[in-house]
Amino acid sequence: MQKNQIVKISKRLSYVLRHRPEEIELIMDEEGWVEVDLLLDRFSNNYFPITLADLQKVVAQNDKKRFAFSDDEAYIRASQGHSIQIDLGYEAIKPPAQLYHGTATRFVHSIREQGLKKRNRHHVHLSADIDTATKVGGRHGQPVILTVNALDMQQDGYKFFQSENGVWLTDQVPVQYLEFP
Ligand code: HQG
Q1: Per the similarity annotation, which family is this (predicted)?
Q2: Where are the domains of the chain?
Q3: φ, ψ at 117 (rounded to 5°)
Q4: 103 CA → ligand 1 middle, Å
Q5: pTM for the whole thing?
Q6: Phi and psi at residue 143, in whole multiples of 5°?
Q7: Interface pTM, i.e. ipTM
């Protein structure tokens, strides 16, 4: 399968597994899992036929490992990035002293006033390294990297989670834990 085909399927999967399962009548459990057979069936009914082998390739080769199969490969879900309410079941864990958030320069004024908010997503997304944060921020415009004093936050009672694909997640970041460049 060509790389652009993998990207195309991955985008469609992100959309239905994170945001709009009902659009193709997927049934999703409270942890975000969807039956693989049902998903293949719904894709083909909605003019987007893919095979199980395609799906396996997308899960394995997706650049950010955005999707995961259950152990028996009967179910699939997105590992993070949802806007719909589901419980991914991640355990709160201790973060490193510092994490990073890449954003665009035009958001900085508002972030200085409000801190980081999750907006349409379930969580604020944080990166373990500056390179990744720069890519995340660059999706929105001229990137700027904010440093988050994550361990201080956790010691003050804020919870941190790490998604299966390594993205750090938290509910919000109040401005006193942020360092601006
Ligand atoms: C900004 C991609 C104004 C925030 C990436 C961000 C990531 C504020 C934007 C994942 C704000 C939301 C998530 C405030 C936050 N005022 N702007 N108070 N608080 N913002 O896309 O973190 O490819 O929802 O800085 O790699 O950019 O989807 O979040 O710029 O992991 O797998 O509001 O999406 O992963 O944008 O990206 P997003 P994000 P996937």
Answers
A1: Belongs to the KptA/TPT1 family.
A2: 3-78, 98-179
A3: -115, 155
A4: 7
A5: 0.86
A6: -75, 150
A7: 0.95
Probe target for ligand 1 pocket from 58, 62, 117, 132, with the most ligand atoms within 8 Å of CB: 117
Q: How far is the CA of 1 from the centre of ligand 1 (A)?
A: 30
**Is 44 in a helix, a strand, or coil?**
helix
Distance from Cα 97 to the centre of ligand 1, integer Å? 21
| CA–CA dist 124, 122 (Å, integer) | 7
CATH class of 98-179: alpha beta
Q: How far is the CA of 51 from the centre of ligand 1 (A)?
A: 32
For the CA of 117, the nearest atom of ligand 1: 19
Give the model confidence (pLDDT) of 102-150 as tens digits.
Answer: 999 999 999 999 999 998 888 999 999 999 999 999 999 999 999 999 9
- pLDDT digit string (tens) for 84-96? 989 988 999 999 9
User: Tell me, what's the pLDDT at 3?
Assistant: 84
Is domain 3-78 annotated with CATH 1.10.10.970? yes
- Note the pLDDT of residue 137: 97
